[in-house]
């Protein structure tokens, strides 16, 4: 019996696709390495919804994020080999589209990770490896994004119909291998992350009719691809079960770790965990209230990620990181839960470069004592929580830092 149809928030992209076909690109095989630097071995890079009209540089600055994953690149119509941002032919891969924003982020010591695919593209045949039937133009498209924006990681979001398209899977991996060889010859640091749906115990295996994420990885290995990061979408399970979303993240990632161990038996446990990424959906996901990722879940996942040494933490998506729509699920612009603006980001931001444990009773490297829910604080007291230092404005007890808002009891003094 086929499994439930997934309906992520990414479906808004479908309305943005245009009908114009475009010519493919030729692989250059040449070029000079630029100033791109490899991403850190531990990275927090929330997804930025590029179809909203927001400025990535402005939101990165407001939220405190150094890194963003930019979603999404796809072709304007099935059969094309030319990607555009949001599948919009008016938004080409060029300095004129997001170039100045990306320059600003990079000048501040951060970077962006352009992401190809997404649910709407994967569902509608405009994911580039599904749309284009020639490997070379696919590789050339990846190279053009890398050189145009001087980035060092590309994300490949592979869901829905793209997981069932064996020819597309093979073309995509052959193109990735070509780009990896080009980058090595050009002395350019380039990584690829594969973003895939998951069950609570590891990658989808196709038995529910939803395609096999594991087959994507097996095909990559058979094509000689170096798997840098496998990023699990730990939300939208659609299994009609109650969920502890933090616990389910841990079991899903453990399942992926074990699947990677079978593919790479010579790798150490630490090396395998450093190939793992997880993307959380803040608050109520597309399925509804039984799948709610809370601010407490975020603190738990953060400490688990630090302990395991996973490679990447992410959120779908940055624009959801606020509490402006209590009780609403699956929104592109709010989490549906009680939270302060950017609370999930602030919890995960210290992960860049390695991170320290932040949840009570530990305090990581923060000099202030860790916040305790049963303690009494008076005006002027400082605590550490979520990788930040907080100062009490008046007497308080039991009020979690980051949940009281701009005018509440806790003043955010910044990261520590």
UniProtKB/TrEMBL annotation:
Short name of any one Pfam family annotated for the protein: CBM_5_12
Signal sequence annotation: 1-35
PROSITE patterns linked to this entry: GH18_2, TAT
Superkingdom of the source species: Bacteria
SMART domains: ChtBD3
Domain GH18: residue ranges: 42-345
InterPro entries noted in UniProt: CBM5/12 (IPR003610), CBM_sf_5/12 (IPR036573), GH (IPR017853), GH18_Chitinase (IPR052750), Glyco_hydro18_cat (IPR001223), TAT_signal (IPR006311)
The entry's keywords: Hydrolase, Signal
Name used for this protein in its record: GH18 domain-containing protein
């Amino acid at each position: 019996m086929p499994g439930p149809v997934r309906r992520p928030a990414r479906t808004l992209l479908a309305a943005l696709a245009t009908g114009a076909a475009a010519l493919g690109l030729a692989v250059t095989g040449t070029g000079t390495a630029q100033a791109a630097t490899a991403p850190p071995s531990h990275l927090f890079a929330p997804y930025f919804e590029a179809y909203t009209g927001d400025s990535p540089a402005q939101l990165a600055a407001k939220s405190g994020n150094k890194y963003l994953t930019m979603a999404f690149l796809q072709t304007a119509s099935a059969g094309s080999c030319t990607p555009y941002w949001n599948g919009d032919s008016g938004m080409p891969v060029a300095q004129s589209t997001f170039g100045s924003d990306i320059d600003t982020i990079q000048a501040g010591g951060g970077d962006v990770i352009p992401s190809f695919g997404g649910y709407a593209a994967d569902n509608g045949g405009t994911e580039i490896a599904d749309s284009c039937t020639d490997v070379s133009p696919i590789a050339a498209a990846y190279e053009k994004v890398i050189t145009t924006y001087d980035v060092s990681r590309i994300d490949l979001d592979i869901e829905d119909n793209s997981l069932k398209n064996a020819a597309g899977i093979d073309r995509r991996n052959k193109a990735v291998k070509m780009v990896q060889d080009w980058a090595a010859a050009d002395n350019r640091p380039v990584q690829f992350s594969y973003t895939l749906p998951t069950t609570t115990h590891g990658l989808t295996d196709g038995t529910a009719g939803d395609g096999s994420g594991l087959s994507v990885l097996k095909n990559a290995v058979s094509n000689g691809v170096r798997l840098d990061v496998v990023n699990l979408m730990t939300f939208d399970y659609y299994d009609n079960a109650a969920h502890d979303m933090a616990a389910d993240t841990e079991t899903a990632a453990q399942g992926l770790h074990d699947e990677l161990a079978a593919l790479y038996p010579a790798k150490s446990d630490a090396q395998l965990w450093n190939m793992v990424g997880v993307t959380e959906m803040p608050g109520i996901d597309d399925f509804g209230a039984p799948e709610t990722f809370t601010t407490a879940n975020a603190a738990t996942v953060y400490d688990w990620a630090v302990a395991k040494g996973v490679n990447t933490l992410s959120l779908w998506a940055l624009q959801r990181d606020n509490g402006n729509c209590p009780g609403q699920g699956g929104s592109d612009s709010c989490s549906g839960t009680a939270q302060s603006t950017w609370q999930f980001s602030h919890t995960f931001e210290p992960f860049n470069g390695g991170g320290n444990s932040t949840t009570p009773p530990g305090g990581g490297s923060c000099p202030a004592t860790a916040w305790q829910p049963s303690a009494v604080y008076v005006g002027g007291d400082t605590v550490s929580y979520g990788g930040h230092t907080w100062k009490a404005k008046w007497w308080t007890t039991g009020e979690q830092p980051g949940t009281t808002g701009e005018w509440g009891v806790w003043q955010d003094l910044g990261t520590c």
